[in-house]
Design brief:
Number of helices: 7
CATH superfamily: Flavodoxin domain
Radius of gyration: 15 Å
Shape: globular
CATH class: Alpha Beta
Order of helices and strands: EHEHHEHEHEHH
Number of domains: 1
CATH topology: Rossmann fold
Strand content: 15-25%
Number of strands: 5
Strand order of the largest sheet: 2-1-3-4-5
Helix content: 40-55%
Length: about 190
């Protein structure tokens, strides 16, 4: 069984993108596609980036745990909210913390916003950052416009049929990329 880490980067009070992360976990597991875990950056409470994890003398236990989860995951889904046309500093902070853990890691991007475009302005800058880290971003995207209407607080979609259909394409692409990335000994 594949293992997928789902990063929920928003640390804002009243955040809505976390709803989508919760739903992806449920979707992957209920459909038998992968074992999934949500990595909630609000719970990690990383300090502002000062040095890569492997260069730190006394790294936080949460940083070591985060590193291990990303390293062990076969693939990653990032659920990135759009903040003023970009992604949150908490996500940039977490990405920059690691190095080797991102190298060749299949990463799928879901973007989220309250507006009609679903955070699509985030995609290019986030893809570029991940590309510079050596990650393999998958070509499928999963924008969620008007997230407060699309998902309730527990991560249940307003239109499960439509959301499942979109998710099948999105997660299918991630799983294909994971399969292409793995070697026979994996």
């Amino acid at each position: 069984m594949k293992h997928i880490a789902i990063i929920s980067p928003s640390i804002r009070k009243g955040r809505k993108s976390h709803r989508v992360a919760l739903w992806f976990k449920r979707y992957l597991e209920e459909n038998g596609l992968a074992a999934a875990m949500v990595i909630d950056l609000a719970a990690c409470r990383f300090p502002l980036f000062t040095e890569r994890l492997k260069m730190q003398e006394n790294p936080m236990p949460e940083a070591i745990e985060f590193s291990g989860k990303i390293a062990k995951a076969d693939g990653v889904i990032i659920v990135a909210p759009e903040y003023n046309g970009g992604y949150p500093a908490s996500l940039k902070n977490a990405i920059d913390l690691l190095t080797d853990e991102w190298r060749h890691k299949p990463v799928a991007i879901s973007t989220v916003s309250d507006g009609p475009f679903g955070g699509t302005q985030v995609i290019t800058s986030l893809q570029f950052t991940l590309w510079k880290m050596g990650a393999r971003t998958v070509p499928a995207m999963f924008p969620v416009p008007r997230v407060d209407e699309a998902f309730d607080e527990e991560g249940r979609p307003a239109d499960p049929g439509a959301m499942n259909k979109r998710a099948a394409r999105f997660t299918g692409e991630l799983i294909r990329c994971i399969g292409a990335h793995q070697t026979p000994e994996d």
